[in-house]
Specification:
This protein is mainly α. It is built from six helices and two strands, in the order H-E-H-H-H-H-E-H. A two-stranded parallel ribbon has the order 1-2. Helix 3 packs antiparallel against helix 5 and helix 5 crosses helix 6. The termini are far apart.
């Protein structure tokens, strides 16, 4: 009798655990993003802007370096009043460069704003496609293996990155 009760209890536990099993899928957002032409183009635009702004800062830094070098050479020949004036000009130039760096590359700078403007709509489309797939297929959760979460092993059958791209209308080669 005890054996029978134990087998019945075991079968019940297996049945309950199998019906409560979570369904999940794995995607690679980096892979998905690199397959979207708009994202690749946005990356090129952002890199071009970044390079232009960095050149602007580098040019101003070169001017500052020249001002510092000239001041080092001439400071012994300048009156105290002229020294203070030059030092103030150099300090103002340094502040301008720091302000420009912050304006272009700071936390809420021009590059961040451009990235938000160009990339966020693409990320929103991906998120919407992922949500549609999750609801349609009954997934309880979807893991992203590209960054942040480390996936040591994933069955390639679980990778739904191509499915997300198809849902977004992106043709695969």
């Amino acid at each position: 009798m005890k054996k029978y009760l134990f087998l019945l209890l075991g079968a019940f536990v297996l049945t309950v655990s199998s019906t409560n099993a979570q369904r999940y899928a794995i995607i690679d957002t980096k892979y998905i993003l690199n397959k979207i032409p708009d994202y690749v183009e946005a990356g090129k635009k952002l890199q071009l802007l970044s390079d232009q702004w960095q050149k602007e800062i580098d040019d101003k830094q070169a001017e500052l370096d020249k001002m510092n070098k000239d001041f080092e050479v001439e400071q012994y020949m300048l009156s105290d009043e002229l020294k203070k004036k030059r030092e103030a000009e150099i300090a103002a130039k340094e502040k301008d460069i720091r302000d420009l760096q912050k304006k272009r590359f700071g936390y809420d700078g021009d590059l961040f704003k451009q990235r938000q403007r160009l990339v966020k709509p693409i990320q929103d489309k991906i998120f919407t496609a992922i949500q549609k797939i999750a609801v349609a297929r009954g997934y309880d959760f979807i893991l992203d293996k590209s960054e942040g979460i480390t996936v040591i092993f994933a069955d390639p059958k679980l990778d739904k990155s191509d499915e997300v791209l198809r849902e977004m209308g992106i043709k695969l080669l």
